[in-house]
Automatic annotation (TrEMBL):
Pfam families: Thioredoxin. Coiled coil: none annotated. This is Thioredoxin domain-containing protein. Keywords: Membrane, Transmembrane, Transmembrane helix. It comes from the Bacteria. It comes from Leuconostoc inhae.
Length: 144
């Protein structure tokens, strides 16, 4: 009887060790990559995406003019990025982002009198705009 209990306990220990090894070697790296991706993807989109905008999309909820070197824009951009990801099927909920540092987008600065970034503007009424990093102010603006 004793040997059966010892064998059973040894088998249980091997199973526990296998599960621990599996979690540490397979599950934990996936979780780390997902968390890192959550923070890196908006940064990559803001800094490395070729944001050459050929026209203003009038169907969008708003337009955000930003500069990838602007610290205020760096604070707001991830929120706008994830807002767009969560609303990717609804064009009327999207916020079009325009990097005014892109040489092909510089004409928007004078065309829409963008004086500072981030500037959010209604596509159908350029006079309705807000310059803010406050998420609640941005949410209120986009829901108008």
């Amino acid at each position: 009887m004793k040997s059966y209990i010892t064998k059973s306990a040894g088998s249980l220990n091997r199973k526990i060790n296998y599960l621990q090894t599996t979690i540490i070697n397979k599950v934990l790296p996936v979780i780390v990559l997902l968390v890192a991706g959550f923070f890196f993807i908006p940064y990559a989109s803001m800094n490395f995406q070729n944001n050459d905008v050929d026209h203003i999309n009038k169907n969008n909820e708003a337009i955000m003019f930003y500069s990838s070197t602007c610290s205020h824009c760096q604070k707001v951009y991830p929120k706008i990025f994830w807002h767009n990801v969560l609303n990717f099927k609804n064009a009327d909920k999207q916020i079009q982002t325009i990097n005014v540092q892109n040489p092909n987008n510089k004409h928007y600065i004078s065309e829409f009198a963008v004086q500072e970034t981030p500037t959010l503007m209604k596509p159908n009424n350029p006079d309705i705009r807000v310059v803010s990093t406050d998420v609640q102010v941005i949410n209120d603006f986009s829901e108008r």
